[in-house]
Design goal:
Elements (H helix, E strand, L loop, with lengths): L1 E3 L5 E3 L24 H29 L11 H12 L11 H21 L5 H25 L2
Antiparallel strand pairs: 1-2
Helix pairs in contact: 1-2, 3-4
Length: about 150
């Protein structure tokens, strides 16, 4: 809104930007009897760092979910909980690439599975039973190898 300068001219007032005030949260730490002064200071710093990370993540999540028409941010308890989950359990930064041997084992697994199914319908001789048994064993061994590799 224009303001009067006293001499009859009007000057434009600068736009106001509302910056949210920091929130003071009271946190009481229990279960640490004998906490020394330096340890308490370090614990306070770590808690502040963690709180800042959660706040940044909550802000990022809220901004991504906010409707375009809405100007004011609204951080809900659900958003804060989601931010906490993201900060506590971050995704691995590098995805492990699949090696050629891993691809070969997966192909061998698929082939053994198909061969096992096909051979089960043709069990008329000793060789067919032996091939079916071998393909089932190969399928099981490769499945266990892949499972072990994914869970180490």
């Amino acid at each position: 809104m224009p303001e009067s300068a006293g001499d009859g001219t009007q000057t434009a007032s600068p736009p106001t930007v509302s910056v949210p005030a920091p929130r003071d949260l009271q946190i009481q730490v229990t279960g640490l009897p004998g906490l020394s002064g330096p340890a308490a200071v370090r614990l306070s710093e770590l808690i502040q760092s963690f709180a800042d990370e959660v706040a940044r993540e909550a802000s990022r999540i809220e901004e991504g979910e906010r409707a375009r028409e809405q100007d004011d941010p609204e951080v809900t308890a659900t958003i804060v909980h989601e931010a906490y989950r993201v900060v506590r359990r971050p995704r691995s930064e590098t995805r492990r690439s699949t090696s050629k041997i891993e691809l070969a084992i997966k192909f061998l697994q698929a082939s053994a599975g198909v061969l096992s199914g096909a051979m089960l319908t043709l069990l008329h001789s000793y060789w067919q039973v032996a091939i079916c048994t071998a393909s089932v064993l190969i399928f099981l061994i490769t499945t266990l190898w892949i499972f072990r590799g994914n869970h180490e």
